[in-house]
Every structure is written in structure tokens, then in C-alpha cells.
Specification:
The complex is a heterodimer of chains A (115) and B (114). By secondary structure, chain A is mainly beta. Chain A has strands spanning 3-7, 10-14, 19-26, 32-38, 44-50, 56-58, 64-68, 73-78, 87-94, 104-105, 109-114. The model of chain A has no long low-confidence stretch (mean pLDDT 90). By secondary structure, chain B is mainly β. In chain B, the strands form two sheets. In chain B, strands 2, 4, 5, 6, 9, 10 and 11 form a seven-stranded mixed β-sheet that branches. Chain B has a four-stranded antiparallel β-sheet with strand order 1-3-8-7, with no helix packed on it. The chains are: A mainly beta (115), B mainly beta (114).
Amino acid sequence: AQSVTQLGSHVSVSEGALVLLRCNYSSSVPPYLFWYVQYPNQGLQLLLKYTTGATLVKGINGFEAEFKKSETSFHLTKPSAHMSDAAEYFCAVSGLSGSARQLTFGSGTQLTVLP
Amino acid sequence: DADVTQTPRNRITKTGKRIMLECSQTKGHDRMYWYRQDPGLGLRLIYYSFDVKDINKGEISDGYSVSRQAQAKFSLSLESAIPNQTALYFCATSDSAGASNEQFFGPGTRLTVL
């Protein structure tokens, strides 16, 4: 079985400040890890993903995440928040085969960017 | 043009009514999924289909049924809608030949059951 925990259902940062959204996962197999973003009244859009290889993954809009196997974490960061980053962010995990190939989502983190 | 489309985008219905939500995709993917999103709960899988003849229950399938009419079409039905099925519903697709399990999402259908 696999699961995802996102620490903090709401995070507020000032414009220009560091964004840090936390994600911890559990998986019985080597995981694929994803961050999706949902803007108001829209579907989910992929920000970035980790499959294999380099553990620091760069995504769209200046976001990046680092896969840390020893900490079972995949935290999302952005050095400088922009007003347009205000959205809900979802971390997700999947395994490599069978039912584990299904995506399991965290409960989401709502990011507010303050002027 | 959107790769994954959902109709309707918004629907208000009454308890006991039958309702169908439709999903179409032009990505050529073989796998399709239905999720519901509730505040604070993230996305939960209702049903998924790996091809036209392969349909599987997800985490929360009770009260729902699906039909995979073609590779590009996957419909979700609520046979007798109830108020706790009020939610945002998403369709998604993925490619079994892909290197990862990345899924591509439609814009969602907001369903309200009165």
C-alpha cells in the first residue's frame, strides 16, 4: 500500500519569499513521485515528477523538488513566490506495476501569496 | 483544443435522479480514470479502465458505475444521486507505454445534488 501526507493544509507566504510545501510518502516499492497544481476552477496540471535518476527535479514556473529516500520526502520549493503561484498543490505517489501503478494523492496544500 | 474534455462542466440535480458525466480524450491514451475531489480529502479514485474491456473499481466505487464506450470515451454514472455525492469530479488519462505513471486531467465537473 502507498500513502501521501502533506503537512499543512494551508500555507501563506509573502510575495518574494521562499515557498516550501512538504510531502512525505510511504510505498512498499520504489516510487514515482509527482506534484500537481490546481488553479481556481481548473483541472490539475503537472508541475514536476520524479521517476529515476537525479533526485533534484526541476519543474515549470520555477518550482523544484528533491527526492530524499532516507526521509521518504519529496518537498516542493520555489525561491521567490509570485502572486500567480496562489493555488492548491497536490503531491502524489505511484509504484511501478500492478495496482501500485495507481496514483495516490495527498489531501492538498492551499498556497496563499500575500502582497 | 483541450486534450481531455468533460461534459457538463457544472450540473445541479435532485436526490434520486440518474446522472451521467462524460469524458473524452484525444491523447490516444489507453488508460482512463474517474476521481472525485472533496475539500480536505484530495482526490479519490472511483473507477479506472486500462482498456475498453478492462474496468476496475477504485477506492470509492459504491453508488457509481462506468462505461468505456471506446478508447477515447469513459462515462461515469450516478444511478440514484444523493447529496453526499456533491463534489468536483475529474477524468484523467495515462499511457501504459509511458515511462512514468503521469496522468493528464480534464477541467472537472462540479456536481451539486440537492
